[in-house]
Design brief:
The chain is an all-beta fold. The protein has 2 domains: 7-53, no CATH class; 60-162, Immunoglobulins (Immunoglobulin-like, Sandwich). The protein is 0% helix and 44% strand. It contains no helices and 15 strands. The N and C termini lie far apart (89 Å). It is rod-shaped and about 120 Å long. It has a 5-stranded antiparallel sheet, with no helix packed on it.
Length: 198
C-alpha cells in the first residue's frame, strides 16, 4: 500500500537503527483523513504504520467589497469548509435582496441547503454570491452588512460600502413672471443636497 499523497517522510530510506519524521501538507477539510505508511525490508514482513491527520475546524471567511455609486452587480467572495452556508442581511441603508443561490466550489447551491458533494469535508473551497446594488442617488456613502453562517454556527460578515452619489439640483419652471401685486409663484426644487436661493 502506497503512503498517502498528502504525507511525506524524512528520510524515506535508511540502514540499521534510525528515526523517520512523518509530516503532511496542510489539511483544510473539516473531516480527518487517514492512510498507512508501509515500512519494507528484504526478507521480513511489511511493518504498517497508520497515520491520521486531524481536520481543520469548521470556518467561514468573507471579504468586504465596494460598490460603485451607479450601482450594478457586485460579487462577494470567501472561503469555507462547511457543509452548507446561510447568507443573511444585516444592518445598513443599501436596499438589496439576497439571491436564492450562490456558487460553492464552482457548484450553484441554494442558500442554506447542503452543498452537493460536500467539498468542505476534504478541503476548503471558495464561494461567491452576486448581489444587485441599486444606484446611490444620495450624496452620502451607503453601507450594508451581509453575514454568512456555516453549519456549526461559525459566521463572518462583509460590509458593502457604496460610494456617494453626485449632488443634483433642478428647478421648475426655469422662468417666472410675478404680477404687479407680487403674488407668490411656486418654483419646485428637486435636489439630493443642501441648497440656497441668493
Amino acid at each position: 500500500m502506497a503512503k498517502p499523497a498528502w504525507s511525506s517522510t524524512d528520510p524515506s530510506s535508511g540502514s540499521g537503527n534510525g528515526t523517520v519524521n512523518v509530516s503532511a501538507i496542510s489539511h483544510t477539510g473539516r473531516s480527518n483523513r487517514s492512510g498507512t505508511l508501509t515500512f519494507k525490508a528484504t526478507g521480513v514482513s511489511d511493518a504498517p504504520v497508520g497515520v491520521t491527520q486531524t481536520a481543520k475546524p469548521e470556518f467561514v471567511t468573507i471579504e468586504d467589497i465596494s460598490a460603485p455609486k451607479a450601482g450594478g452587480n457586485i460579487t462577494i467572495t470567501g472561503t469555507s469548509n462547511s457543509a452548507k452556508l446561510n447568507f443573511t442581511l444585516g444592518s445598513g441603508d443599501i436596499t438589496i435582496t439576497l439571491p436564492t443561490s450562490y456558487l460553492a466550489g464552482g457548484v450553484t447551491t441554494s442558500n442554506n441547503v447542503n452543498i452537493a458533494g460536500d467539498p468542505g469535508a476534504a478541503a476548503e473551497y471558495n464561494f461567491s454570491i452576486t448581489i444587485t446594488v441599486p444606484e446611490n442617488a444620495t450624496t452620502g456613502t451607503k453601507t450594508r452588512i451581509v453575514t454568512v453562517t456555516g453549519t456549526g454556527g461559525q459566521s463572518a460578515s462583509a460590509t458593502i460600502t457604496q460610494s456617494a452619489g453626485d449632488p443634483t439640483l433642478s428647478v421648475s419652471p426655469t422662468s417666472i413672471t410675478l404680477d404687479w401685486e407680487g403674488t407668490p409663484v411656486a418654483v419646485s426644487v428637486t435636489s439630493n443636497t443642501n441648497w440656497t436661493v441668493e
